[in-house]
Design a protein that fits this description.
By secondary structure, this protein is α+β, with helices and mostly antiparallel strands. It has one domain: Roll (Nuclear Transport Factor 2, Chain: A). About 35% of the residues lie in helices and about 40% in strands. Strands 1, 2, 3, 4, 5, 6 and 7 form a seven-stranded mixed β-sheet that branches. The longest helix is centred in the first third of the chain and has 16 residues. Pfam families: SnoaL_2.
């Protein structure tokens, strides 16, 4: 796939994610997905496609309107798409989740097959995981 096509896969994934259309978002993930989240807290680690799907679908229980992820910078080379983004979501308890990310996506055959997600882990742990 071309670099622009790879960027479109990432753009479509986050557009679907941001409106809580997880069924569509998950179709853009490869079956052998490895989604890694940085840090040493509740959601750190490596997720399979099923595990990642369960994680994001579980967000709706606590963040009823979902978490909007807005890409701010995107650059691509070969099979990789790097994205800087900001998120926003409001938990049922009124706490606002507003984080900054750098996510490196690896694309194969029109699917995200690997992601490396870096964020403010302290904010995520204090607001989203407490």
């Amino acid at each position: 796939m071309s670099i622009e096509a790879n960027k479109q896969v990432v753009t479509k994934f986050w557009a679907a994610f941001s409106v809580s259309d997880f069924d569509t978002a998950l179709t853009l993930l490869g079956e052998d997905l490895k989604w890694w989240v940085a840090g040493d807290f509740a959601i750190s680690g490596t997720y399979s496609k099923k595990q990642f799907g369960d994680l994001v679908k579980g967000l709706l229980d606590d963040v009823p309107k979902g978490i909007r992820v807005t890409p701010q910078i995107m650059t691509a080379e070969e099979d990789r798409v790097a994205m800087v983004a900001e998120s926003y979501g409001k938990r049922k308890n009124g706490k606002i989740y507003n984080n900054k990310y750098h996510i490196l996506h690896f694309i194969r055959d029109g699917k995200i097959i690997e992601a490396r997600e870096y964020m403010d882990t302290k904010h995520c742990n204090e607001i989203l995981c407490s």
